[in-house]
Design goal:
The protein has a two-stranded antiparallel ribbon. The chain is mainly alpha-helical. The two termini are about 15 Å apart. The longest helix is centred in the last third of the chain and has 23 residues. This is Phage holin family protein. Keywords: Membrane, Transmembrane, Transmembrane helix. InterPro entries: Phage_holin_4_2.
Length: about 110
């Protein structure tokens, strides 16, 4: 049940970010739901591989390179999902930062 709630909130955050951020667009609620699911799957399967391959860079930058990996995940989601568009790397980075912050707020509220 908690996973479904997280997916719902991620969908809502994707819609809100696409509405307020120039350079990010989502066609519909269903597209945002697919984006939330694809982001979750990419974070489960692809992100650990990227983190493993870039471990020396991540250690050297004291973990800041993980932000770049998050932006790459968002850009990969952009390529995989029709109807979701992020125009450049910097928008993907900002999108991933704000989305991660919103998700962590919801997670901290749901734990209480």
């Amino acid at each position: 049940m908690k996973t479904l709630i997280n997916i719902f909130f991620t969908t809502v955050f994707v819609l809100l970010l696409a509405h307020f951020m120039p350079g990010v667009s989502v066609n519909s609620f269903m597209t945002a739901l697919i984006v939330a699911l694809v982001l979750g799957l990419l974070n489960i399967f692809i992100k650990p591989i990227l983190v493993l391959f870039t471990l020396p860079v991540t250690v050297f930058t004291l973990g800041l390179f993980l932000l770049v990996i998050n932006a790459i995940i968002v850009m990969l989601c952009d390529e995989l999902v029709d109807g979701f568009e992020v125009i450049d790397f910097w928008r993907a980075l900002l999108f991933s930062l704000i989305l991660s912050f919103c998700q962590s707020v919801v997670a901290s509220l749901s734990d209480k």
